[in-house]
Write a structure and sequence with these properties.
The chain has 397 residues and is α/β, with parallel strands linked by helices. It is built from 9 helices and 18 strands. Strands 1, 2, 8, 9, 10, 11, 17 and 18 form an 8-stranded mixed sheet that branches.
């Protein structure tokens, strides 16, 4: 559809910065950049009306990883890189709280737990976690205490991981380890709070506007041309914040979309409030209001779902059947399933994010590794600082 006069003169006039993707990273990038350059015109374009990646479809865990996941990360990354990754998650969650506020995002410092089932594999993993407990507490405990002690009243000491035999007995687990610094938030409240902040900062948001291609402007240093269904838009700088879908624009990046299925169930017996991790975080659940429980994950089921916008109801049903079996194992009898959906993560060879510059004026921050709530806002702030520090460009034409 051609762009009309009023659109070209104001509504879709050239921007100083266009962010592609209205997830946590994209919205955070726009807000932090606008704070650094309040006089500049900032725009976000999002192909879906609400977003169909991870931001509106996550479980709302305010977490930093658990012992099973950390064991994998130490093996894959090495001790120092693992510690740095957890530090970035701590800083990112603090950045989210500082940007929007605890109340606005519905944050509850509920505590979290990792559960190990009473199988040979579960007992072996529990022993590995127990053996690594002291070293993990020495490395991560002080980082959590330094950042969160003033925010979370009542936590004694600085341990990141605490064995909890009582919680293990409650769930019939072989072992349980508490993560006392963990919490949970309300994803819908968080996204609404982001939208209010964008409006108050005079940042334009265009939902339902897919970017189909990117080209450099005709004049050197004049920015980028974005091809959309509404016509061509122009921007001095462009930031790609589409997480797992980034290879549409950056085909050589080590990132790909990975689906997770999520159910909301009504268990017959009430659950102790909190967040829970199983199978090294590949399964997870948390309490919701009115006695419901969100139970999700299952990437290790090896059930393939087609890429968006396609769907496979049979594959989704097979996934949900397995997910419900696991839910009943941990929650007991379930009276009903009220919701089921797919969220898409951005994953790669490890859980670390990717931030960089492909060309002058073209930047990216993607691959959140399933940790968007914790790491997204901090990554957006870093990308905004990178954009702010770039040498000036000419007018977008």
């Amino acid at each position: 559809m051609p762009i009309g006069y009023w659109e070209s003169e104001h509504l879709l006039a050239p921007a100083d910065l266009t962010v592609i993707g209205a997830g946590i990273v994209g919205m955070s990038t726009a807000l932090h950049y606008k704070a650094l350059r309040p006089q500049e015109r900032v725009r976000i374009v999002e192909h879906d009306v609400l977003g169909e990646g991870g931001t509106t479809r996550n479980a709302g865990f305010a977490c930093f990883g658990g012992p099973g996941e950390w064991l994998d990360d130490v093996e894959a990354l090495g001790h120092d890189a693992w510690k740095s990754l957890v530090q970035s998650r701590i800083e990112g969650l603090c950045a989210l709280i500082d940007l929007l506020g605890e109340t606005a995002i519905g944050l509850e410092w509920s505590g979290g737990w990792e559960l190990f089932d009473d199988t040979p594999a579960g007992r072996k993993r529990a022993q590995q976690a127990a053996d690594a407990l002291e070293g993990m507490n020495t490395a991560i405990g002080p980082l959590l205490a330094a950042a969160l002690q003033s925010r979370i009243p009542g936590i004694q000491g600085a341990a990141a991981l605490v064995p909890d035999a009582e919680r293990a007995r409650h769930f019939g687990a072989h072992a349980a380890i508490q993560l006392p610094w963990e919490g949970m938030l309300h994803t819908g409240h968080m996204v609404s709070s982001f939208h209010r902040a964008l409006h108050n900062s005079d940042i334009q948001c265009l939902h339902g506007c897919a970017v189909n291609g990117l080209k450099p402007a005709d004049a050197p240093g004049a920015g980028w041309r974005l091809q959309t269904a509404r016509g061509e838009m122009h921007s001095k700088r462009t930031a790609i914040c589409t997480n797992g879908f980034a290879r549409q624009f950056l085909p050589d990046l080590n990132v790909e979309p990975a689906p997770n299925r999520v159910l909301v169930v009504t268990p017959r017996k009430p659950l102790p409030p909190g967040t829970y991790h199983v199978d090294d975080g590949y399964l997870y659940f948390r309490t919701l209001p009115k006695g419901q429980v969100l139970f999700g994950g299952g990437r290790h089921f090896d059930i393939a779902l087609p890429p968006l916008p396609e769907r496979s109801p049979s594959a989704e049903a097979a996934w949900d059947t397995l997910l419900l079996e696991h839910a009943k194992r941990w929650l007991g009898p379930v009276d009903e399933v009220t919701h089921s959906w797919t969220g898409w993560l951005g994953v790669g060879k490890d859980r670390g994010p990717i931030m960089g510059t492909l060309a002058p004026g073209l930047h990216h921050a993607v691959r959140l590794g399933g940790m968007g709530v914790a790491i997204g806002c901090g990554l957006g702030r870093s990308l905004a600082e990178q954009l702010h520090g770039e040498p000036p460009t000419g007018p977008a034409v």
